[in-house]
Write a structure and sequence with these properties.
34 strands; elongated; 877 residues; alpha+beta; six-stranded antiparallel β-sheet; 21 helices
Length: 877
């Protein structure tokens, strides 16, 4: 029965042999099978060498754990290669010094069983190592040592036992844990272990405390923050268990880090296979063993392993590694252990002259007591470290970084330790630089993809508010923890806070309130990010005032909400805050503010990416502003072309529906109007200018205003249209054809209405009688804007109570779907079903019929004018 399985593939290069050895060793040690690790590593080394060096193909390595032993399979892609086969006389391998077949000779000597299997595409060599018989209670043992070689510990070794439930909360806390860290059980039980643990790994990489608590077994170093606020380094062994009800929890055994030998499993560095020993010789230490192993694929993993091994090599309390920025003028913190890494992550210090310079960057240096030279190593200020040794990382003479190991006691290090650390740094510098360049290339590709996506999103909208929201959402949380956008209306206006976003939505209101209370940053048109301390200073001042009031040390009025909200806001803006100007068309139109939480810093690459984003965002924001301004102007002009409020016509129901084609258009080539001419008389018109858009809208404005003016001067319908025709022709090249239905309406005392209409090239008005019959209410006449001399006449129509007069533009009758068209007949059919409906219901039914006629939205302007003479109310009985 297979109980566990692990597999990996290795490329046909020399370093893959060492990588395969590490893979097998890590796998078997993770399974707790240290007794057979050495034999498995030796056999794997020989078989993988045969695959990647001699066969020249990739090697697939599979580790399988069963109930009785472990099977390791090594397959290559060269099935034709000759290998020793089993014969009747047993195994024949040739001379032991012969290069070929040596791996199989070792398999025969060390493995319980082994074999060779062929397929059409690959050859597989496998071996099985059986579990040794172990006396009860024995897992591993070390050799007898003289007393002087034993690990040093206090006379009273305390082992803290802490149990953590499945939710990460402390459920048990023994007396030794109380003595080590100062907390009584009632103070600590029920709190998350993450509140106490100072995890050594670089934030965002490796395994965190929450992940470690979910592993079946974990062992390593981290810090515990005691009741006095001081972080004590500890060595821990975690074991995940479950109770009788099946509820999982983790038991953590903790000792002081200097007493790690009490819990520490045998070091992996002690189990060095023969091939590695032969390559390095007998004089190797633990750090050199690490240097000889393959580098992790990611830069952060390599740097974190480097600082941890450097600290162990020099028996330090802390270690850190800085890398040079692209321009090599600053060093940036990239990994640390034993230090508050979250606070130092990506902090930068100058390499050369200036306040707080990192003076020991280019040469090895030893500081015996940092208290005598404050600020010599800015990274270690207020950390409790007294002595430090630092060495540079150089590649081809260029400074690429700096590695340091520090201790809490003074005079810990000498030139001898500096030379050892420099030797190690020289061995790792090239691998670090190679990994850094790989990461830089990956980041640049990611940045390009990010900017392309950002540009597409910003180009997809011309709405100002949506552009502001996109700017913030693209930066949070990708580039910053919070973001604010200030906009500037013009050169004399003060910046206005327009948008605020935080990765924690609960903090947005507090952050916005804080920014509203402080002065905005100064407008600087020059490019590049600059620091801004305003939010930090204001937040911490507010938190201090609130705390004092809550303790009755300040004002007598105690705040109702307590200091919690102020402290949360202060924590949110407590890190680095930068201002990026939004410059478009040589004018500052706003500022983009990016911030980090307490004591965090921005990476230089992220700042450069934010600068590129700010330039694109500024142009998109300015485009949105220009579009909004032009849209506002266009809408204002268009609204001026629409009729004012529709008048009430006594004794006649009037309903108008108007739709202009085109996004953002309120007025098109179709138009309507209804206006009083004189007492008891009203003029109405519905028309269609050839074309759509602004050019057609200009003619509609001319026509509507001319109709009102001429009608109120007392001209009849034919005279009004003839003079309008002359005005259109006077426009010259800008003139447009115009179809127009114009009429005058006189409500009568008997409840009817008399209309005099002129239909100049327009779809004929339709009259719906009470009996459901429909007929044309006018005759067609020539359209306007074509001929100079027109002879028009008007026709009189009487609407009886219950009659409806429907006037439409050709956007209704010419509604199409494929080759089908609604047409005059379709409109007539719709109107026939409207008997007894009000004018509003008639217009709505016609509009619904037009919209449902085709799936696509209408592409032409459309106007519907319905007038109905209501029936008289029945007399009361």
């Amino acid at each position: 029965m297979i109980t566990a399985r692990a597999a990996a593939t290795f490329e046909p290069v020399g370093r893959s042999v060492a990588a395969a050895r590490t893979f097998v060793r890590d796998t078997l040690q993770g399974w707790g099978l240290t007794d057979i690790v050495d034999d498995a590593v030796v056999l794997t080394s020989e078989l993988v060498t045969n695959a990647v060096v001699h066969a020249g193909t990739t090697a697939d390595v599979v580790c399988i754990r069963a109930e009785t032993g472990v099977r390791v399979e090594v397959a290559d892609r060269y099935p034709e290669r000759e290998v020793p086969l089993q014969s009747n006389g047993g195994h024949h391998f040739g001379h032991p010094d012969r290069e070929g077949g040596r791996g199989l000779l070792l398999c025969a000597a060390l493995a319980a069983r082994w074999g060779v299997e062929y397929t059409a595409t690959h050859k597989q060599v496998w071996f099985q190592l059986d579990f040794p018989d172990r006396p009860a209670g024995t897992r591993a043992a070390g050799p007898a040592l003289p007393s002087s070689a034993l690990p040093i510990a206090d006379s009273r070794v305390r082992v803290g036992v802490v149990q953590v439930d499945s939710g990460g909360l402390i459920s048990a806390w023994n007396d030794d844990a109380q003595e080590l860290f100062g907390y009584h059980p009632e103070q600590i039980i029920g709190k998350p272990l993450t509140d106490l643990a100072a995890w050594p790994h670089t934030p965002g990489t490796g395994t965190g405390v929450a992940e470690a608590l979910l592993l079946s077994r974990w062992e390593g170093s981290y810090g515990i923050r005691g009741a006095d606020g001081r972080v004590s380094p500890v060595y821990a062994s975690h074991l995940r268990i479950r109770d009788a009800e099946g509820e999982p929890s983790t038991v953590c055994l903790l000792v002081r880090d200097l007493e790690r030998a009490v819990l520490q499993s045998p070091m992996r560095g002690a189990n060095v296979d023969t091939a590695e020993t032969a390559e390095r010789g007998p004089a190797t230490d633990a750090f050199e063993v690490f240097i000889g192993s393959p580098a992790p694929d990611d830069l952060d993993g390599l740097l974190q392993r480097t600082v941890e091994r450097a600290r162990d090599m020099l028996d330090g309390d802390a270690a850190y590694l800085l890398l040079a920025t692209d321009d090599e003028t600053e060093l940036e913190v990239r990994a640390s252990t034993g230090l508050p890494s979250a606070r130092q992550r990506f902090a930068r210090v100058p390499v050369e002259a200036g306040t707080g310079r990192y003076g020991s960057a280019r040469m090895p240096a030893v500081h015996e007591d940092l208290s005598a030279v404050p600020g010599a190593v800015p990274l270690l200020v207020n950390t409790g470290m007294r002595s430090v040794v630092t060495v540079p990382l150089k590649v081809e003479g260029r400074l690429t970084g700096s590695l340091g190991v520090a201790a809490e006691s003074p005079a810990r290090y000498s030139n001898e330790e500096a030379l050892r650390l420099q030797f190690a740094a020289d061995r790792i510098a090239l691998a670090v630089e190679r990994a850094r360049l790989t990461e830089l290339e990956r980041l640049r590709r990611g940045s390009l993809s990010f900017l392309v996506e950002a540009s597409d999103l910003l180009a997809g909208t011309l709405d100002r508010d949506q552009t502001l929201a996109l700017m913030a959402q693209m930066t949070v949380p990708t580039l910053a923890s919070w973001c604010a956008v200030y906009t500037v209306a013009d050169q004399v206006s003060e910046p206005e806070l327009s948008y605020v976003l935080h990765e924690d939505e609960d903090r947005i209101d507090g952050l916005k309130a804080l920014l509203m209370k402080i002065d905005p940053p100064e407008q600087v048109p020059t490019g590049g990010a600059r620091s801004w301390s305003g939010p930090y200073d204001a937040a911490h001042a507010a938190a201090l005032r609130t705390s004092l009031r809550s303790l009755s040390l300040g004002d007598s009025a105690r705040p109702s909400s307590g200091p919690g909200a102020s402290l949360a806001t202060a924590s949110a803006v407590g890190g680095e805050t930068v201002v990026l100007p939004l410059v478009a068309r040589n004018r500052v139109i706003g500022m983009l503010i990016l911030g980090k939480p307490t004591d965090e810093h921005f990476r230089q690459e992220n700042l450069e990416l934010a600068e590129d984003l700010s330039r694109r965002a500024a142009l998109a924001l300015d485009n949105a502003r220009l579009y909004s301004e032009r849209t506002a102007i266009s809408q204002s002009l268009q609204r001026s072309l629409l009729p004012p409020e529709q008048p009430e016509v006594p004794g006649v129901e009037v309903e108008v529906i108007y739709r202009a084609a085109g996004e953002g258009n309120e007025v098109g080539g179709d138009f309507y109007d209804l206006f009083p001419i004189r007492d008891g008389a009203y003029g109405f018109a519905i028309g269609d200018v050839c074309g759509t858009g602004p050019e057609a809208a200009a003619v509609t404005g001319l026509a509507r205003h001319a109709l009102r003016l001429l009608a109120r001067e007392g001209f009849g319908g034919p005279a009004v249209l003839e003079r309008l025709n002359a005005a259109i022709l006077d426009e010259g090249a800008r003139s447009r054809f115009l179809t127009l239905l114009y009429g005058e309406l006189w409500p009568q005392h008997d409840g009817s209405a008399v209309l005099k209409v002129v239909c100049a090239g327009h779809p004929l008005p339709l009259r719906l009688r009470q009996d459901g019959s429909v007929e044309a209410a006018a005759e067609p006449q020539p359209l306007l804007g074509v001929m100079e001399d027109l002879e028009l006449y008007e026709q009189t129509v009487t609407l009886d109570p219950g009659d409806v007069l429907l006037c439409v533009t050709d956007g209704v009758t010419e509604r199409r779907e494929g080759t089908r068209m609604l047409g005059d007949d379709g409109l007539l059919d719709v109107l026939t079903t409207c008997t007894g409906l009000t004018a509003g219901a008639v217009a709505a039914r016609v509009l619904r019929a037009v919209e449902r006629f085709a799936a696509e939205p209408p592409s032409d302007d459309m106007a519907i004018l319905a007038m109905r003479v209501p029936e008289p109310e029945p007399a009361d009985a």
